[in-house]
């Protein structure tokens, strides 16, 4: 109820009805249409037009839906089991996985700069990644703004490390398109290798853990992404130390 498109369709009088209803939720559920019209300083016709724009045939249907809306409580029980985390560490303790980390580190060492990108919760992880790699001597930047300008010679020949659980973020895909145009190497860390971002990448590390949502909010664990970033950082540090010793 009260979706973006519905609210956008309201005129000024209908918006005033909406504001009154949301400010007086407990009262409105018991009010008659004439009472609501008087209290919100509009006509009953305006109230009926408002109800239609909310997808209701009349005021009675609106009151019923509104009552359910304000009484609605999402109860989502989430698993406290950490088996998927343990499974992730077991799956990534392989020679093949280590070789992929090595390839990514070699690409980072060859590149002009390293840039992390992500949005929402993945944006927070991306900031952590940039900070972590900077701590081992690889100065890194983070872009967590979906509208941040990513055009220009500055980005040419960079390694771009993409953090994305779903691998389907439209804004991040737009960034990747621009980075690929500038000959950047794309490394993605996603939950599945079948996602769009994974397929666009030069290197992809999938981690396969269950998606978890509470309502509209994604609370899928970020531990695998953090672990992967830290492995890249530690490998990077060791490669630098080995090259110094060889000189």
From TrEMBL:
<dbReference type="InterPro" id="IPR001347">
    <property type="entry name" value="SIS_dom"/>
</dbReference>
<feature type="domain" description="HTH rpiR-type">
    <location>
        <begin position="1"/>
        <end position="73"/>
    </location>
</feature>
<dbReference type="InterPro" id="IPR035472">
    <property type="entry name" value="RpiR-like_SIS"/>
</dbReference>
<dbReference type="Pfam" id="PF01418">
    <property type="entry name" value="HTH_6"/>
</dbReference>
<keyword id="KW-0804">Transcription</keyword>
<feature type="domain" description="SIS">
    <location>
        <begin position="104"/>
        <end position="242"/>
    </location>
</feature>
<keyword id="KW-0238">DNA-binding</keyword>
<dbReference type="Pfam" id="PF01380">
    <property type="entry name" value="SIS"/>
</dbReference>
<dbReference type="InterPro" id="IPR009057">
    <property type="entry name" value="Homeodomain-like_sf"/>
</dbReference>
<dbReference type="GO" id="GO:0097367">
    <property type="term" value="F:carbohydrate derivative binding"/>
</dbReference>
<dbReference type="InterPro" id="IPR047640">
    <property type="entry name" value="RpiR-like"/>
</dbReference>
<protein>
    <submittedName>
        <fullName>HTH-type transcriptional regulator GlvR</fullName>
    </submittedName>
</protein>
<dbReference type="InterPro" id="IPR000281">
    <property type="entry name" value="HTH_RpiR"/>
</dbReference>
<dbReference type="InterPro" id="IPR046348">
    <property type="entry name" value="SIS_dom_sf"/>
</dbReference>
<dbReference type="GO" id="GO:0003700">
    <property type="term" value="F:DNA-binding transcription factor activity"/>
</dbReference>
<dbReference type="GO" id="GO:0003677">
    <property type="term" value="F:DNA binding"/>
</dbReference>
<dbReference type="GO" id="GO:1901135">
    <property type="term" value="P:carbohydrate derivative metabolic process"/>
</dbReference>
<dbReference type="InterPro" id="IPR036388">
    <property type="entry name" value="WH-like_DNA-bd_sf"/>
</dbReference>
<keyword id="KW-0805">Transcription regulation</keyword>
